[in-house]
Amino acid sequence: MMTVLSYALLILLLLSSAVLILMVLLHKGKGGGLSSMFGGGMSSVASGSSVAEKNLTRITIGVGVIWFACIVAYGLLLRTLV
Fold first, then answer.
1. Looking at the domain assignment, is residue 77 inside a domain?
2. How far out from the chain centre does Cα 2 lie?
3. Which among 16, 29, 51, 59 could bridge 67 via Cys, Cβ 3.0 to 4.6 Å?
4. How far apart are alpha carbons 25 and 27 in whole angstroms?
């Protein structure tokens, strides 16, 4: 029998997983991947990290921390229910 808290944690875990996947996919590549193998690895003049990239990194780390906390909390909750 699952409680309301476990359902809430499960929904938060699923949402944070989806958002974390999207955030990681939004980051620009650092080179050496498939795109550079097929000629897409042209380096631009302004290749430094921008403010948007730094903010995207911070948000990704924040979502990752939320995801990790959900994993731990859900595991502890399941351990107490069984």
1. yes
2. 27
3. 16
4. 6
